[in-house]
Amino acid sequence: MPIKNRFAETHAEITGWRRHLHQYPELQFDVHETAKFVEEKLRSFGITDITMGVGQSGVVAVIEGRSTASGRAVGLRADMDALPIEEETGLEYASKNPGKMHACGHDGHTAMLLGAAQYLAETRNFDGKAVLIFQPAEEGGGGGLEMCKDGLMERWGIDEVYGLHNMPGAEVGSFHIREGALLAATDEFEITITGQGGHAAAPHEAIDPNLAAAHVIIGLQSIASRNVDPLAQVVVSVCVLRSDSEAFNIIPHRVTMRGTVRTLDGGVRDLAEKRLGEIVDLTARAQGCTAEVTYDRGYPVTVNHADETIYAADAAEAVTPGVDRATPPIMAGEDFSYMLEERPGAYIMLGNGDGATVHHPEYNFNDDAIPAGCSWFAELVERRMPMV
Question: How many CB atoms lie within 10 A of CB 62?
Fold first, then answer.
């Protein structure tokens, strides 16, 4: 049957957990109350093998199957942190923490993994260990990397690792996955262009960094249009533009730009970084200015392993027939990528239905997706570590 009966029975209960988490969002590594809530729920399920503070504030719990003769361990990951956004949903369970909001559905991800944990602790219909990973700081903090540095894979002997993310715009409960690059590398840059400030009425006596910045913004788009293979993907976005003057009649001395580069291939990533530096330097010099560039590499490409993509899709097919196994790549980033660099595994998208997209003040996780997500987590464990 598509949805495990237990999740139909506990749907309302899990929804309650999700809405509680939604009311009390926390940012990056400061997820201590969320982690405490997770721990309390896990212990109420009879799970005792719980480790707190992994990767600063993550939670790792182990559920042993009826047998552990296989010696195998499968990791299931959910993220716990929220975003620095003021919520505008008007929901009765809206955020009670000003300036913080679960605008990406991590409350739903955590609740679904808790729901799966409750079921797995009750049934234990598998041969091995299910390792539940509740991660902090996905939203820019690199919590996945910190947990890996803290020995996540080695300490708990994880053989494979899986995670999911909700997908607004896709039918509720549908699943979408692809082998290879699913989500992009997320790099950041800061550019400072220095000219010579002056009076706006006498631009010939100044060196205008605004003009140089304008040319740089346009020039950076040539990376996608003229430097990278048209069949490859790259996004270069300047998202912040700020000068050292706010006056209407002053040519500023200095302009700062910040933005992001998104790629799905290591070679394209290298090329984009190289060309960005060259374009900024030469364009600024052509306008009589100087430029400094800081380029920081962020999350790597999220690459699904071949066999594990099939396992994840097959488990999804058992839950919701008609899985999209060749969904287009998404240029958003995800630090589950670090876990996939350490162990084979896969990341899948779960349909969230119509509504606001993630990172929007009116976004809300769709509770109707809960049974499908819980079932997928549980199905993976039972399929990857079957009882003989």
Answer: 16
- What is the DSSP track for 258-327? EEEEEESSHHHHHHHHHHHHHHHHHHHHHTT-EEEEEEE--S--EEE-HHHHHHHHHHHHHHSSS-BSSP
What are the residue ranges in the chain where pLDDT is below 50? 1
Cα dihedral 371/375/376/378 (nearest 10): 140
pLDDT digits (tens, 9 = 90+) for 4-15: 788 999 999 999
Angle, alpha carbons 372-377-382 (nearest 5°): 115
- Max CA-CA distance within the chain? 84
Q: Residue 172 has which token pair?
A: 């509720």
Long-range CB contacts (within 8 A, 24+) of 36-44: 38/80, 38/110, 38/114, 38/134, 41/17, 41/114, 41/117, 41/118, 42/114, 42/117, 42/132
261, β-bridge pairs:
187, 236
Confirm if 195 and 204 have CB atoms less than 8 A apart. Answer: no
Convert 289-298 to b/e letters by CB count within 10 Å (16 or more is b).
bebebebeeb
pTM score: 0.94
Residue 110's CB is within 10 A of a number of other CB atoms, namely 27
CA distance linking residue 225 with residue 205, whole number of Å: 35
Instruction: Write down the pLDDT at residue 1.
Output: 43
In whole angstroms, give the CA distance from residue 334 to residue 344: 16
> What per-residue confidence (pLDDT) applies to 2?
60
pLDDT for 5: 84
- Residues 217-257: pLDDT tens digits? 999 999 999 999 999 999 999 999 999 999 999 999 999 99
- Portion of the chain with pLDDT greater than 90, in percent: 98
Instruction: Report the distance separating Cα 379 and Cα 315, nearest Å.
Output: 6
Burial (Cβ within 10 Å: 0-12, 13-18, ≥19) of residue 48: exposed
- Identify whether the C-beta of residue 165 lies closer than 8 Å to the C-beta of residue 110: no
CA dihedral 227, 229, 233, 239 (to 10 degrees): 10
Length of the chain: 388
**Neighbouring-strand partners of residue 166:** 350
